[in-house]
Specification:
It is built from five helices and ten strands, in the order βαββαβββαβββααβ. It is of the alpha+beta class. The radius of gyration is 19 Å and the shape is globular.
Length: 243
């Protein structure tokens, strides 16, 4: 039977979501746990997508198949009792055999938190401690240039090789509560470092290091990729996945 789960994790001590030999990953922790639950049978888990080292998730989604009979309540309890404390399964559902956590995604919502106030050591792994003022009005105007369908090749990691770099951003906006600036992006898909590079570019605009129309210039010409800065991973959260 196929199961769909919604879960959260603290990315601080993970080397990213994807399983990598010699490194601690979210995927590896799940597959070890599922091996024990599924009568010591190797069980693959398929998520909506990967997150980078240090990136957190509030509403990540995945699916897997089990050979055993188990109630949803018992499965959730078993997962949360066997998984490490920095992962928590929030919801377990029975899914149709045709459901795929990655290929059927309609949209994802990422949020990024940045502190422009005094350094806060308690939040150092969960909010980017930028600790300098930014021109939020300039950034709020510039972030709108991300909305729509664009070729994001210049905003992704150099080692991210895709057949198609075109993605659509449905929403992009900024909110501020005291010293915390929140960047919000909703789109049909995101690639490696894309959100962090978008935020980093906005930070440079807010600092006055590059012009307010820099985003348009980066889309237009590969030579302008040098204008990008990659924001730190700790401020980034996968908040929601929609199907």
């Amino acid at each position: 039977m196929r199961y769909k789960i919604t879960f959260s994790y603290d990315g601080t001590l993970f080397h990213g979501y994807q399983k990598q030999i010699g490194y601690r990953s979210v995927e590896e922790c799940f597959e070890k746990t599922l091996y024990d639950i599924n009568n010591h049978t190797e069980t693959k888990i398929f998520s909506s997508g990967r997150t980078d080292r240090g990136v957190h998730a509030i509403g990540q989604v995945a699916h897997f198949d089990l050979n055993i009979e188990i109630t949803l309540y018992k499965l959730k309890c078993a997962l949360n009792s066997l998984l490490p404390d920095d992962i928590h399964v929030n919801e377990v559902e029975i899914a149709d055999d045709s459901f795929h956590a990655r290929f059927l995604v309609k949209s994802k919502k990422y949020v990024y938190y940045l502190n422009v106030g005094e350094y806060n050591p308690l939040l150092r792994n969960y909010v980017y401690q930028f600790n300098h003022e930014l021109d939020v009005d300039k950034m709020d105007l510039a972030i709108k240039d991300f909305i729509g369908v664009h070729n994001f090749k210049n905003f992704v990691s150099d080692d991210c090789v895709k057949d198609n770099y075109e993605r659509e951003i449905y929403e992009a906006y900024i909110e501020r509560e005291r010293d915390i600036i929140k960047f919000v992006f909703v789109g049909n898909g995101f690639m490696k470092y894309q959100v962090r590079n978008m935020v980093g570019t906005l930070i440079k605009i807010g600092k006055g290091k590059i012009d307010s129309d820099a985003i348009k210039k980066i889309f237009e010409d590969d030579k302008n990729k040098k204008l990008i800065m990659t924001a730190k991973s700790e401020g980034l959260y996968l908040e929601e996945v929609r199907y």
